[in-house]
Design brief:
mainly beta; 42% strand; globular; four-stranded antiparallel sheet
C-alpha cells in the first residue's frame, strides 16, 4: 500500500505501508510515518485479484485518519 497526505496546511507526506484489513468503512494499515488524527490521505492498494486473470488492479481511495497507535 502507498499513501500520500492531502493536507494544504502541512508538508506533504508520501510513504508505504502494509494493509492489515479493509472493510466498507475503512482500512487498517501500518505506516512508516506517524499520521495524526484528521490527516487527509489518498491511498493506493494493490488488489490481490487480477481483472480477467490478466490485468493487475489498484484500489484508490481518500479518507481521514481516525485512529493511530505507536508501535
Amino acid at each position: 500500500m502507498c499513501a500520500r497526505s492531502l493536507s494544504k496546511r502541512s508538508e506533504a507526506v508520501v510513504g508505504a505501508g502494509k494493509t492489515i484489513n479493509v472493510s466498507s468503512s475503512g482500512a487498517l494499515f501500518t505506516s512508516e510515518h506517524e499520521l495524526a488524527n484528521g490527516t487527509r490521505l489518498q491511498v493506493f492498494m494493490h488488489w490481490p485479484v487480477k481483472l480477467n486473470e490478466k490485468r493487475g488492479l489498484n484500489l484508490v481511495g481518500t479518507g481521514r485518519v481516525v485512529r493511530h497507535a505507536k508501535g
